[in-house]
From TrEMBL:
Lineage of the species this protein comes from: Bacteria, Bacillati, Actinomycetota, Actinomycetes, Mycobacteriales
CDD domains attached to this UniProt entry: FHb-globin_2 (cd14782), flavohem_like_fad_nad_binding (cd06184)
Domain Globin: 14-155
UniProt-listed Enzyme Commission number(s): 1.14.12.17
Catalytically driven reaction(s): 2 nitric oxide + NADPH + 2 O2 = 2 nitrate + NADP(+) + H(+); 2 nitric oxide + NADH + 2 O2 = 2 nitrate + NAD(+) + H(+)
Protein name: nitric oxide dioxygenase
Length: 415
């Protein structure tokens, strides 16, 4: 069961034959220059609209270049499917983008801003002599087909949430902070306005949290919900993110750890996210996570333990050690409340190494839910595919903007 109908994503529009011919011919050219186009696009957009970088876009991802690659790949993947519908359908990619946009309160005018500066960057990099009116018209059509598809889907999400487009931000009060032995912190919030309680949500969904940072920026980050919901309270767990080589520290996560406790005010958004289990199904569920990727699994387990404890469940987790395993005791306790469950954790230190699904008796007809870093998800998806698990039964959440890296069949677009 999803938060909103996804018919918009199933029935993608078609390119006119003359536009499709141009896109086929120019995809290699655009792909060859994409690493120049996207950074220039963001430079132009943030110069014209500095408030977007300060208050909307993830500054950490911008610093690493991850968001630039994600944008380029999503447009190229969409264009490739339009000219060759036999390729894997991008509905899951579009659904993840749409839910993320809804969680950020994105609205239609922002697509116009992106269009203006993206196409200015394309012309500047490729040259006005190369970007003929025919080429410009074809790529303009691709962009607006994708943008309109997302705008319509996001409108469905807003309608399902009972709000106007973009009206997703809520002021809350932290009623409890729980520090886990692994070093993560869980924050429980409720609405600051008793007349406007926080809504329920589907197991596996997330919220965005707005942090008012010391430099005046308001940065937004997504955190999975770990409670069952329905009581007007939302709970999410945060891991501190130290700086590493070429990777900045986690601005919002560290701010939450250092500055937020019980009684404090906190801006959040309504819940969104498409890594949700089918609450009407009775088939087995396999939850596979690494590190802080355990959080959506904890939310799913809360639901299973309360509503369908007889549903067969397999819980697999990978971490550096038992000491760094977030919510380990919480997950273990939830597992004891299930009638048919298998729970195993792999630890690099003092354990049995890397997670290996081939060592597990996987149930037939199961749905698989994955959450972790890019390398971990690539590793697990590869193992599942080798085991003959249909790709439509494998669902994932990636705590980074690089979802395109997981779609191996579509990578050559940008090779």
């Amino acid at each position: 069961m999803r938060l909103a109908p996804d018919s918009t994503l199933h029935n993608l529009p078609e390119l006119a034959p003359e536009h499709a011919e141009v896109i086929r011919a120019t995809l290699p050219l655009v792909a060859a220059h994409i690493d120049q186009i996207t950074p220039l696009f963001y430079t132009k957009m943030f110069t014209a609209h500095p408030e977007l970088l300060r208050d909307r876009f993830n500054r950490g991802n911008q610093h690493q270049g991850a968001q630039q690659k994600a944008l380029a790949a999503s447009i190229a993947t969409f264009a490739t499917h339009l000219v060759d519908p036999s390729l894997p359908h991008p509905r899951e990619l579009l659904a993840r983008i749409g839910h993320k946009h809804a969680s950020l309160g994105v609205t239609e005018p922002e697509y116009r801003i992106v269009h203006e500066h993206l196409f200015a960057a394309i012309v500047e990099v490729l040259g006005a002599d190369v970007v003929t009116p025919e080429i410009a018209a074809a790529w303009d059509r691709v962009y607006w087909l994708m943008a309109t598809t997302l705008i319509d889907f996001e409108r469905e999400l807003y309608d399902a949430a009972g709000v106007e487009p973009g009206d997703v931000f809520r002021e809350t009060r932290v009623v409890e902070r729980i520090d886990d032995p692994s070093g993560v912190a869980t924050f429980v919030v409720e609405s600051a306005d008793p007349a406007r309680p926080l809504p329920g949500f589907l197991p596996g969904q997330y919220i965005s949290v707005g942090a008012k940072l010391p430099d005046g920026a308001r940065q937004l980050r997504q955190y999975s919900l770990i409670n069952r919901g329905g009581d007007g309270r939302l709970a999410f767990t945060v891991r501190r993110v130290p700086a590493e080589a070429n990777i900045p520290a986690g601005e919002v996560s560290n701010w939450l750890h250092d500055s937020v406790g019980a009684g404090d005010s906190l801006e959040i958004t309504l819940p969104f996210g498409d890594l949700t289990i089918d609450t009407e199904a009775t088939t087995p569920v396999v939850l596979i996570s690494a590190g802080i990727g355990v959080t959506p699994m904890a939310g799913i387990l809360e639901y299973l333990a309360a509503e369908t404890p007889a549903r067969r469940t397999v819980i697999l987790h990978a971490d550096r050690s038992a000491d760094t395993h977030p919510l380990r005791e919480t997950v273990a306790d939830l597992a004891t409340r299930l009638a048919d469950v298998y729970f195993h954790a792999w630890y690099e230190a003092g354990g049995d190494g890397l997670l290996d699904v081939t060592r597990v008796d996987l149930p037939e007809d199961a749905d698989y839910y994955l959450c972790g870093g890019t390398g971990f998800l690539q590793h697990v998806r590869s193992q599942l595919m080798s085991a003959g698990i249909p790709t439509d039964r494998v669902h994932f959440e990636l705590f980074a903007p690089n979802d395109w890296l997981l779609d191996a069949d579509q990578e050559p677009v940008l090779a």
